[in-house]
Amino acid sequence: MVTGDGSVIEEPRLAVRHRSAGSWSRRSLLLFFLPVLATALTGLATLAVSGNLLLPFERVIVLEGKMASKRDFFEDEEVQRILLKHHIKVHITSSGSREVAVRDIAAFDFVFPSGQPAGDLITGVRAADGLYAKVHRPFVSPIVLATYREYAETLRDAGIATPLPSGGGDGGADRPLYYSLDKRKFLDSIDRGKRWNDLGIRRHGIANANRIVAQSPDVCGSNSAGTLHTPLEIVYPKDGIVVSDYPLMLLDPAARDAYDRLTAWLRSDAVQRKIMESTLRRPITPDLPRIPSLRAPLGNALYFPDSQAVVDRLLADYAAARSGGPARVLFLLDFSTSMRGERIANLRGTIDGLGGADDSRSGRFARFHRGETLTVLRFGGRVLDERSVTYTKAADLDRLRGFVAGDGFAAGTAIWSALDRAYRTAAGAVAKDPRQRVSIVLMTDGENNAGMSLDAFLGRYAALPPAARAVRTYTVRYGDADPRELDRAARATGGRMVDATEQSLLNAFKEIRGCHE
Fold first, then answer.
1. Which 8-state DSSP code applies to residue 356?
2. Strands laid side by side in the 134-136 sheet
3. Hey, CA dihedral for 104, 109, 110, 111, is it positive or negative?
4. How far apart are CA 157 and CA 161, in angstroms?
């Protein structure tokens, strides 16, 4: 560069220093680590919100199970994810229920057969061998037959099936969708090797020389894909719905903690709802709302034994109920103000039905027996009155109807005080005549809001003499009654709860009459 005086000055040079390949700038470090840090923080936040923050550090217990038709449920990705949240992983070996019952299961923590007969076989064998078994039943399913109309009508022509009364949503009197099945005649046709042609199916435009058989693992899901050209007809057993339960059986006591967590999870409302929606089986939780396809009441549920000895005992017990010592039933009936109107009308209709107005087969079985002593204890916020009648003639049943015909309602609902009073009556009855068979039926449409609590009652019940504690209570949930408390009270006394919110009150009482006889 030349200046004004002619001297030459060298221009400055800028030296550019290149960054070595092994060096990092602060900005580069931030650009690299910030996304990694953000991802890690997001993951930690997700684990914290979901309650799984410590899950990677907690021990996951693997349960080895053997089962049949429930495998798909336990292999569902969402089910596996939720189980993992509870630190449980279930590894399934698939097998038929019969194979589960008769093969060696020593290598498994639990088994899950489909149905009571297989479950009873397993528990019986293990009990005989002195082996451990704990049973939990998470859901039940009615057993019905599904067939095409031509086959249902053929059974009808043969006197084996009878169309059920028409109702909303069915095909009408000429094209019924539901039939009642006479199991004795149906099974007799199978045992005799009858063929569909023998029953006259040709009259309905079909020729079928095959033997009559009944096999269907999943009626509700048979047309889930919508591929059948004609709908299936449902055939119900004539004398009651056969119910299949599903015993989840723990075999290894060392896995008890995980098993208890698994069964508690299965009984939760969310899981019971998923079972109902994904498998179309009825939840064991009585107060969980049913999906539309499962809302129809089952009616009288029948659990068939798989042992001749059990059948013989049932027949002997039934004969004893008809000819043995005197029987007495105490009916605790809610006469709180919420029972006014339709509810009390249904209760009075129920008493009429048990008194002989219900002429159905189950009604004839469940009605009051001659010689039976019937006590009605009405209660509201306190015990209102207690009256008894021994049924020997028609006039006695008229007196019984008169006990519930009055409109003496009272505010409040003292459920457990009334039950305590009933047990005092029962204790006196069995002390006076030890041969007397006494049971209690408690019906309420509300929650306890007066008198003693359930815990207080259970404390007083525990102090009763052994003969009085042997009296069982059967509770009927009606209206807005608390199913958990009613179930707890019934189980504590050796009885059971029947839900009348999804069936008629008469059917609920008939079901109980079948229990305590």
1. I
2. 88-94, 61-67, 110-112, 248-250, 134-136
3. negative
4. 8
pLDDT reported for residue 283: 78
Beta bridge partners of 485: none
* E strand or H helix that includes residue 161: strand 161-163
Q: How far apart are the first and last CA of the chain?
A: 123
Burial class (CB in 10 A: 0-12, 13-18, 19+), 139: buried
Q: Rounded to 5 degrees, what angle do the CA atoms 504, 509, 514 make?
A: 125
Strands (E) in 170-247, as ranges, are 178-181, 233-237, 241-245
CA dist 304 and 487 (Å) reads: 23
Is the predicted pLDDT of residue 164 greater than 80, yes or no?
no
In a domain, 147, yes or no: yes
Query: Which CATH number does the domain housing residue 255 bear?
Result: 3.40.190.10
Residues 176, 126, single domain; the answer is: no
Task: Give the pLDDT confidence of 109-154 residue by residue, as tens digits.
Answer: 888 887 677 777 788 888 888 888 888 777 666 666 778 889 889 9
Structure tokens at 163: 């169309």
Tokens of residue 501, six digits: 């919110």
pLDDT tens string 380-431: 999 998 888 888 888 888 888 888 888 888 899 999 999 999 999 999 998 9
Structural domain boundaries, residue 427: 307-516
In 209-268, where does DSSP find H-type helix? 256-267
CB 144 within 8 A of CB 234: yes
Q: Is the pTM of this model over 0.85?
A: no
Query: Which tokens hold the place of 323?
Result: 């000819």
Tell me if 191 is assigned to some domain.
yes
Q: Where are the alpha helices (DSSP H) in 372-503?
A: 394-405, 415-432, 454-462, 466-469, 483-492
Query: Alpha-carbon distance 494 to 475, whole Å?
Result: 11
pLDDT single digits (tens) 218-247: 545 444 444 444 555 555 555 555 566 677
Given a contact cutoff of 8 angstroms between Cβ atoms, the answer to whether 101 and 55 are in contact is: no
| 69 and 172 inside one domain | no
